Amino acid sequence: MKIISEKKYLFMILMAALTTGFFIESQIANKGIIVLSQLVLSLLMFIYIFTNHIYSKKWIISSSILVLLLLFNGSKIGSILLVGVVLVLAEVLRSIEKVIDIKKLLTYKYLYVYILIILSFALIALSSNEYIFWTPDSKIFPLERLKLLMSEPSYLGMLLSPLLLYDNSFFNKIALYILMLLTQSYLAFSYVGFLKLLTFKKGIYVIIIIGIITLYYLVGLSFHNFFVNSGMVRLVGITLFTNHPIEISTLFFGHGLGAGDFALTQYFNDLHVKTANGFIFSAFYDIGIVGIGLYLYALGRNKLEYIILLFLLLNFGLGDILVPIILYLSRQLLNFRT
Fold it and tell me: What is the band of 124 on the pLDDT scale with cuts at 50, 70, 90?
């Protein structure tokens, strides 16, 4: 028997997505922190598991095998639980979309009014030298980058990206574009173009070709070359495969969650960078080709969604709750456009 309606689930999930900037010190996560909204969603997902009895057979099988693989390759229980929350969240969102028209919510006539109110608070805080809604750096404009209550601007930008392509009112579009521009996130801008390309019939093949060319270029780079600009840093994890010996067993089944970033730590420390992150290549290093395949299969539905998930892993970890949420918003966009 359900004790929480789909609408309440969706509301709490979106609120959690917008407040990922709050975290606490904890040994449960590889980075030594855990996002508070992850704790809230963990409770929600626990409730969902024990009050809902209709699951996709595909999801149950792929998720179960993935969890067994993570146990097999030595991943810590805490990290497995975070990935588990993401897996369940993806299934919750799939059930929600059957009964809720997200387009009506995101194209609400006066959405721009709420956006402008939020932006006003953020600007007032900035004028008082309070950086709770901003990060003290700039890329495009001589102004701090907007992040609101999220951990960094690129997270906000990528969450907004699908919304920019929904059919919406003029004022809503302007308000969303203002928020997007203020994040000054090149990756988020790229994601908008990426989603736009996916709406075209042959777009996926163009993306695959670009991906292959990029991989060919990356293989020849040294570790230090990736720090020439901030965009390239997200791809530094490929050195886990080009600068280290590769074993067939770990290539397919991984070294365990967190192993990739741990292996990169010393190299990052040598460059006086505090936190090591290999992003998508760390994910491959952690759970292997088989693990990534199971992860994509459990969260996605088709080749378009698998490609979207790979793009999201350029900026998010396997256990980040924003992965299934942004996938959900992107899926609705593609459903309306195709």
Answer: very high
Which stretches of 52-110 are DSSP H helices?
A: 57-72, 77-96, 102-106
Distance in angstroms (rounded) separating the CA atoms of residues 132 and 123: 11
CA distance 300 to 306: 6
User: Terminus-to-terminus CA distance in the chain, angstroms?
Assistant: 35
What span, in angstroms and rounded, lies between the C-alpha atoms of 12 and 42? 12
Average pLDDT of 304-327? Answer: 94
Separation CA 296–CA 301 (nearest Å):
8
Of 88, 46, 12, the residue nearest 319 (C-alpha): 88
Instruction: State how far the Cα of 81 lies from the Cα of 168, in Å rounded to an integer.
Output: 38
Across-strand partners of 135?
145
Contact 25, 32 (CB under 8 A): yes
The 10s digit of each residue's pLDDT in 270-285 is 877 777 788 999 999 9
Coil vs helix vs strand at 133:
coil
8 A C-beta contact, residue 286 and residue 260: yes
Neighbours of 109 (CB within 10 A): 10
Q: Tell me phi and psi for residue 201, to 5 degrees.
A: -60, -40
Q: 107 or 196: whose pLDDT is higher? A: 196
Secondary structure (H, E, C), 104-133: HHHCCCCHHHHHHHHHHHHHHHHHCCCCCC
